[in-house]
Amino acid sequence: MSDASKPDVARAEVAVLVLLSVVAWAVRVSPYFRATGVLGWAVDFDEGVYLSASALLWQGVLPWRDFVFVHPPAVPVLLSFATAWDVTASRSLEVARWGVTLVGAFDVLLAALLVRRHAGFVGACVTAGLLAVWPEVVACDRGVHLEPFLTAACLLSMWKLDHDRPRVLSAGLWLGVALLVKSWAVLWLAAWLVARGRRALPGVVVAVVLASAVMLPIAVLVPDFISQVVWLHVVRAPDGDESLLVRLREMFVARSVVPLVLLAVSASALWRRRSDPFFRQLLAVSLLLVAAFLSAAAFWNQYDAHLAFPLALLCGVGVSERWSALPERFAHPMAGLVAALLVAIPGFVWVRDRRFDQDDQQPGRVALIRATPPGPMCAFEPHELVMADRWPAPLKGTKTLVDSYGQMLLDAARGGARYPSATAAFSSDAAQATIREQLPACPKWVVGWRGRWQLNAGSQALLRPEQVVDP
Fold this sequence. Notes:
By secondary structure, the protein is mainly α. Helix content is 64%, strand content 2%. The protein is built from 25 helices and 4 strands. It has helices at residues 6-29, 45-58, 74-78, 80-83, 89-118, 121-132, 135-141, 147-159, 168-181, 185-196, 201-221, 224-235, 244-252, 258-265, 267-271, 277-295, 304-324, 335-353, 362-371, 382-387, 404-414, 422-427, 433-441, 448-454, 457-460; strands at residues 239-240, 298-299, 378-379, 445-446. The protein is globular, with a radius of gyration of 23 Å. It starts with 5 loop residues before the first helix and ends in an 11-residue tail after the last helix. The relative contact order is 0.13.
């Protein structure tokens, strides 16, 4: 290939990867074009918590002080693009969902470009093909979740660590942003140190300084900040998939074995790159995430939406290594697209089978909330309030209820007691401390299944029939 043709080839390769990211975006937004619209794809608990926290922040109701919020401060600020406008709560949710799909597609593109830079075009196509339809990633990118923002910040950090001109301080800034999104970013910091040693130290310092500069003033002004954002996650009761075997199955087998097969087939080729800091960082963060997910008190397969990225990057690098060893007759310009299509088949089958998924009962519950006369209303499932164009009501003399799950787990743990499960924690009187102040302070309550699970008999007895708005 002549030197003159190389820029044209590079532009064509990037164009193909952009096209694959557009396909990834189309996959994510496909349910939004049904008759049920953007909110026809079932809205879940976390979406209501994150969006309500952002909206209340704009109203002067502060997280950690005025309501329990067990996450770092970045997401309420990042979601301002959906909540800072004078629109209804449900429209804010729709805007936020559209925005997250764009972040998700950007993550796919950035992951593919990283592999192209460090391993080659075919591997980049494999990475993009896997991530475009990776079931957990697609499901997560269709809602308002932390993982797409966390992944974007972590990948941008890796993007700055170019082999020729490593921009360590810029990489550190992005990891600092990641720390402000979710605590899992600590594992990326550790992996960076493992992979790059002392050369990573300036960037790690920048990341820690940035995160501290934001969080320490909050911790000083709101002493409960540390207990909500850090301490609770250390002492919380187990929940979700508790079996180690189930967790491993969810991570590697449940919906597609293609990534596991690709990693197994290319293991020896990957090992030959063990001196490459890029590979070492990917391997380290993958192992650290798996170890963290196996040892965590709580695990849901949504977490795999973040683990998918280092795994898909490793798959791309491994395939590129294997591909480069093949005879030249296989070096066809279409080889990358064919590889992307092949590895995407299992994920595409999942996407196709889930295209009509929805919570059939959710529209009825939302309609009941809409039909309730205007006025303050509280809910154990905040997302259904948001869908009905209501934000959680600020309450006089007590905290606003935004995250009933986090609030009650926090109360349960405050006295030092430990519980074998979340159900056991909720049944304790300690878990009911704050909610018993909130129950009489709010005139209308949407209790639902979550309220019946989290309230013990003594707390349920405090609710008057006229307060309850339930199907």
